[in-house]
Specification:
LRR_dom_sf; Protein slit; four-stranded parallel β-sheet; signal; mainly beta; 119 residues; Leucine-rich repeat, LRR (right-handed beta-alpha superhelix)
C-alpha cells in the first residue's frame, strides 16, 4: 500500500521483482508520470488503484504485462485521452473507473476487446 506518500513519478525500476503482488494501491499521491515499463513485472496484479493523482497521459502498453488485471481505478486524475494501445492486454478487465477526469476521447479500439466489463 503506497497511498498518500506524495509520489510524483513511478519509474521503470520502482516496482521490479514484484511478480506475486496481487493488489497495488497508489491512490492519493501526486503522480504525474508513470514511465513506460513501470508495471512490467506486475504479472499477478488483479487490482490497481491509481485514483486521486495528477495523471494526464498513459503510455501505450502501460498495462501490457498485467494480464490478470480485473479492476483498474483511474478516477480523479487529469486524463484526457485513452489510446488504442493503453489497455491492449487487459482482456480480463471487469471494472474500469474513469470518472472525474478531463476525457476528450476514448479510442474505440481501446475498449473493443474488453469483453468482461461489468456495466
Amino acid at each position: 500500500d503506497l497511498q498518500g506518500n506524495n509520489l510524483t513519478v513511478i519509474r521503470k525500476t520502482d516496482l521490479q521483482g514484484l511478480a506475486n503482488l496481487r493488489i497495488l494501491q497508489l491512490l492519493d499521491n501526486q503522480i504525474q508520470t508513470v514511465e513506460k515499463g513501470a508495471f512490467q513485472d506486475l504479472t499477478s496484479v488483479i487490482r490497481l488503484r491509481l485514483d486521486r493523482n495528477e495523471l494526464r497521459t498513459l503510455p501505450d502498453f502501460l498495462f501490457a504485462s498485467m494480464t490478470k488485471l480485473e479492476r483498474l481505478d483511474l478516477s480523479y486524475n487529469n486524463i484526457q485521452y485513452i489510446g488504442k494501445k493503453t489497455l491492449k492486454s487487459s482482456t480480463l478487465l471487469k471494472n474500469l473507473q474513469l470518472d472525474h477526469n478531463q476525457i476528450v476521447c476514448i479510442s474505440d479500439a481501446a475498449i473493443r476487446h474488453l469483453k468482461n466489463m461489468e456495466i
